[in-house]
């Protein structure tokens, strides 16, 4: 079975940092473009970042300059380093093989809360 297990979320003060990880199994991780997608209460999915199998990256306007996506294909793991967090970053962060809900594989996500 495909599993995408995100971790590393939590409560952080504005201006703080978090590093999310996503452990993947059950598929050939190294051949997939991987996504971080966040969803805040009452809002639609927000494609935060993606990384191709060879390392080409995409960042949303809100993530540029603050977030860094990376992957370790040998460990089947996806990462998201998030710096300079603000309350608007509060959401459940999912790792996924497609940014569109109902497509590809999505993990359960990890909650990120930015609050003082």
Question: What can be said about this structure in brief?
Answer:
The chain is mostly beta strands and 116 residues long. 0% of the residues lie in helices and 47% in strands.
Report the structural category. Answer: mainly beta
Shape: globular
What is the residue-averaged pLDDT? 96
Number of helices: 0
Q: How can the largest sheet be summarized?
A: 6 strands, mixed
N- and C-termini, Cα separation = 39 Å
Strand runs, count: 10
- The stretches of 5 or more residues where confidence is low (pLDDT under 50) are none
Largest beta sheet: strand ordering:
2-10-9-4-5-6
- Give the H and E element order: EEEEEEEEEE
Helical proportion, percent range: under 10%
- Please state the CA-atom Rg, rounded to the nearest Å: 13 Å
User: Could you tell me the strand content as a percent range?
Assistant: over 45%
Q: Which SSEs are present, and which pair or pack?
A:
Blueprint: E1 3-7, E2 10-12, E3 18-25, E4 34-39, E5 46-51, E6 57-59, E7 67-72, E8 77-82, E9 91-96, E10 110-114
Outline the structure in words.
This protein is mainly β and 116 residues long. 0% of the residues lie in helices and 47% in strands. It contains no helices and ten strands. It has strands spanning 3-7, 10-12, 18-25, 34-39, 46-51, 57-59, 67-72, 77-82, 91-96, 110-114. The strands form two sheets. It has a six-stranded mixed sheet with strand order 2-10-9-4-5-6, with no helix packed on it. Strands 1-3-8-7 form a four-stranded antiparallel sheet, with no helix packed on it. It is globular and about 40 Å long. The termini are far apart. The model has no long low-confidence stretch (mean pLDDT 96).
